[in-house]
Amino acid sequence: MSFEEYCEILLKPSTELISDEYAHDNGTACVHIFIFKENYEAFFVDCMKLLGYSIPDTNIHQLSTRTEVLSSLQKICDETKDKCSLIILFWGPFKSDRKFVLNDGSCIKMIEIWSKFISSNCLTLKEKPKIFIFNGFHEKHSHGSVARHMENTEEDSMRVIKGSVDNFSYNIPAEGDILIVFKQNNDLRSSVEYMDSLCSNLQNFSEREDIFSLLTITDFLSHPILISTMTRKFYLKFNPNRGLQLSIREKYNKIEEAIQKMRENIIYLTKDNKKVRDVSETLTEVPDSTNDLKKASSTEENLHRRIFRSEGGLKFRPRSNTASKLIDIEKLNKTRADNRPPWKF
């Protein structure tokens, strides 16, 4: 028996031979929410509905007891036959050992949640994207202190030592198409702020960025921990253009709209000018007698322009521009000579 067969590892072909994006339909996606208290999930539900995902009330579960949570997970697994993807949001308090605390005081580990949907337990979701978002906040102890230290992941999910899985709160999946996100918060307020930031990213950038990028875009000092075995990119909203191509396409569409508006304005103004031009042309079409009268009046106006008022009476301006300039120069020199001071002679 080979090592791959012993560990139940499925070796997939190179990502260069497959498409870069998961093909899925938002209408057939399976989205479930496990919430510690009612109405905290409303913002996330509205956000996913705007993106085209359906989340009925039956897909919202309370963290009541361990038995009910495990039963709900198994029911979800049984109903994923015609589903193209799986998205689960698990939001609640957790202890220092990374175990989520339920309403009855019992605990559940993250591996117990996502391991329900691996290919050996849920064959219908094989080679389909499975996303698990864990948003937890520290549970305060009786003396009021808050656990801040976080242990590193020490074990793989491979069955190297039998029985060692129960000693750790979460492991790394050994198969592809799984994305695990864990965000630890110091209090409930921080967890609410993170969900608000996440929903804002989902609404604004789902067409351009994949889910991995959207989960890491945050203003918080503590970034979420991501464990991904995804073989392709998962986009929450479909668009033929992604990333920089989408930005260029959006700007190109805006330029096209501006050019179209300019074209319409030019056509509109051209039509108006044509109408005015037509009216002016009709006004200029007058009888010959009127044209003769206009010519006579224009001749008289030209004659008046040549007359200027002098010292004693009216004189005709010389027709030669050169002669008039010479006369003006002589007058100017004579004026300067008359007004020259005596001491300059």
Automatic annotation (TrEMBL):
It comes from the Eukaryota. InterPro entries: Caspase-like_dom_sf (IPR029030), Pept_C14_caspase (IPR011600), Pept_C14A (IPR015917). Residues 33-238 form the Peptidase C14A caspase catalytic domain. Gene3D superfamilies: 3.40.50.1460. Coiled coil: none annotated. GO terms for molecular function: cysteine-type endopeptidase activity. GO terms for biological process: proteolysis. Belongs to the peptidase C14A family. This is Peptidase C14A caspase catalytic domain-containing protein. It comes from Henosepilachna vigintioctopunctata.
